[in-house]
Specification:
Layout: E1 9-14, E2 17-19, H1 24-47, E3 55-59, E4 64-69, E5 80-85, H2 91-99
Antiparallel strand pairs: 1-2, 1-5, 3-4, 4-5
Length: 103
């Protein structure tokens, strides 16, 4: 029997912390993937002289993970949002949902 896909989970990035109503386990799992994705994006940005990423998306067969920083900047203490959902969905749809969260 297949498990149901993960529902959409939203995360808030603020002051170096990640918080969510989805619970601490969800935050811990998201934080690990977010840090890896952000690190990878930063390495590419450095190599191309573009700086740190303001957004990033990881799509796998069973989930899509996304983050976006709001207008304040891209450091670890700047406000942003993130999402994790248990399906592959279009980038624009997820980015639109994440970037419209309150800062």
């Amino acid at each position: 029997m297949d498990d149901a896909p993960l529902p959409l989970q939203l995360f808030t990035l603020r002051d170096g912390m990640i918080v969510s109503a989805a619970g601490q386990d969800a935050v811990d799992h998201y934080a690990a993937d977010f840090q890896g994705l952000r690190h990878f994006g930063s390495k590419i940005g450095q190599a191309l002289d573009l700086g740190d990423p303001w957004t990033g998306t990881l799509q796998e067969d069973e989930f899509t993970l996304n983050f976006a920083y709001f207008d304040a900047g891209t450091s670890s203490v700047d406000p942003g949002g993130g999402a994790l959902v248990g399906e592959a969905i279009p980038l624009f749809e997820l980015l639109n949902r994440v970037s419209t969260q309150e800062a």
